[in-house]
Amino acid sequence: MDNTSTPQVMIDSYLEWVKKEGLPITEDFGVDLLGVETALWPRFDAKGAAVHLKGRGDFISMFVLEIAPSASTSPQRHLYEEVVYVLAGRGSTTIETSDGRKHMFEWGPMSMFAIPLNAKYRHFNGSGAEPARLVSTTSMPAVMNMFHNEEFIFNNEWQFDERIGESKYFSGEGDFIPVRPGNHMWETNFVPDLSAIELKPWGDRGAGGSNIMFILADGTIHAHISEMPVGTYKKAHRHGADFHVMCVTGSGYSLLWYEGEQDFHRVDWKHGTVFAPPDQMFHQHFNTSPQPARYFATAYGSLRYPFTESKRKSLFGGVSTSLKDGGDQIEYADQSPRIQQLYEEATARSGVTPRMAAFF
User: What pTM value is reported for the model?
Assistant: First the structure.
C-alpha cells in the first residue's frame, strides 16, 4: 500500500460533477432566478447555472437553463427526476417514448411540467427575439451521490414506460384525485399556466387559503401550489429541509426563525424568487399585493411516494396540525404579536387593507 497517496474521503459526487460541468453556482438564503448568472453549458448546448439554497437538503437542487432565441437544447436523457417551471419566454418541449412516439407541448411563462424518468427530451425556444429561461428542480444530488457514475446516469437504456402516463397528461389535461382538504391531487405531466389552475380550499392552513398537490410523471419529486387571498397571510409551520418555494403571482414576504429566536429572517418575494426554509425552521408567508399571491413548491418525497418518514408526516397533516396537538403549525392565537404588527406596517406601505381580523 502506498502510504503517500491522498486518502479519498468526504467526496460529494454531485458537487464534483457541477464543478466539472463548469456551471456557475449561486448560493443564498433566497435567490432571484431571473437574475441568476449563467454560462455556456456544453451538455445542453445552452446557458445554465446551479442554484444551491441554504435549505436545499441532501436530495435535490435547482438548475437554471437559458435558451437563446430560435435555439434548442441538445437531446437529453437521465436517471434523475426533473420538474420544470418556465420563468420567461415561450417555446416547446418534445418527449420521446421507448416505442418511438413523440409527445410535444408548448409552454409559456408560469407553465410547469415534468420529464418522465430517463425519457429522451429536447427544449425549443419559440421566439426569434427573446431568450427563454427555465428553472428545474431535480433529484440529481441524490442520484449522483448514490451511484457516482456519470455514464450510468446519462447513458442508461432502461425504459420506465410506466412513468409516461396517459397522452392527455402532455396536453394540459389531467386527473383530479380527491383525498382530503390540503391533499387533493392533480395527476398530469404538464400544466400550461400555474396562475390559472383551479385550487381547492384548505382552511387548516389559515385565512381562506387554497391549494392543490401534483403527481407528476408518477414521480418521487413533490410539487404543490398554494394561494393566499388579498390582505391575508398563512399560519407559521416547520418541516424538514428541501421545500423550494417559488412565487408565481403577487408579491409579499416570508419570515423565518428557529424556535427560541427573538429575531426573524426575512425574504421578500415576487415572481422569480425562490427560497428553501432550512431544516425545522419556522416560516410564515405574507401577501402584501393587491392580488392573490400564489407560490409553487417542490421537494423530494411526493404524496404518492413520500420517500422519508419526515415527508410522510409533513405532507399528510403535520404541517397543518397545531403544535399543541403534536403537529408543526403555530395557530394565529399563539403567534407572536409582532407578526400582525409587521404585517399591518407592510400592507400600509403597499396600500393593501389587511383582512385578518375575521381569522383571529
Answer: 0.96
